[in-house]
Amino acid sequence: MITLEALARALFTSLADTLAPPACAACDLGVGRSAVFCGSCAGAVERAGPSSVVAFALYGGPVATALRRLKYQDRSDLARPLGDLLRRAARDAALRADLVVPVPLHPTRLAERGYNQAALLGAAAARELGAPLEARALLRTRPTSQQARLPRAQRLENVTGAFRVRVPAQVRGRHVVLVDDVATTGATLAACLAALRESGAAAVTALVVARAGD
């Protein structure tokens, strides 16, 4: 028997697909509702292997294109399909967490962009893990240059000491899953991880959509 709730959900989905048809996150070709990429783009995605950072794919090709669109082209709508990839990575790695914490933006950068892509992705991870999302647990204490614009050697220096935990008791003794969109050198994640551990987090696992290849 179909419940009213199920019927309403189906009608909402149908309306959403009519107004905004599902499209490939990299090239905008039409796709099925559960697909993130079209067949051609999906075939170019290279899954990430085991690493200290849990990731769905290696950074490059369609995944890199989709993440750049999310981050720099005002495509917050792509957080949903890319969040699905993050959920799959968490599921495949059998992650467990007491708390999900996204890498924060400085308030100035947040005002410019209008949203924190890591927080949007973190919401998907929190749903998968059945853990609360604490989007304001970490604070970026000073504006930093965009990591992507810096030479690799300067990226660690750029973010060292740039983060602190707002309320240490919130993370003390807890297993935290730290979420970001991408890990390249790992400098930003390392700086956030240091702040969380200094505040007493029992364990920290980094989870991203994509990471740089070995």
Notes on the protein architecture:
By secondary structure, this protein is α/β, with parallel strands linked by helices. The chain has one domain: Rossmann fold. Helices cover 43% and strands 16% of the residues. The strands form two sheets. It has a four-stranded parallel β-sheet, sandwiched between helices. Strands 3-4 form a two-stranded antiparallel ribbon. Helix 9 (187-198) links the parallel strand 5 (175-183) and strand 6. The longest helix has 16 residues, at 4-19. It is globular and about 45 Å long. The relative contact order is 0.15. The mean pLDDT is 88.
Outline of the structure:
Helices cover 43% and strands 16% of the residues. The chain has 214 residues and is an alpha/beta fold.
Supply database-style keywords.
single chain, 214 residues, alpha/beta, Rossmann fold, 4-stranded parallel sheet, two-stranded antiparallel sheet, 9 helices, 43% helix, globular
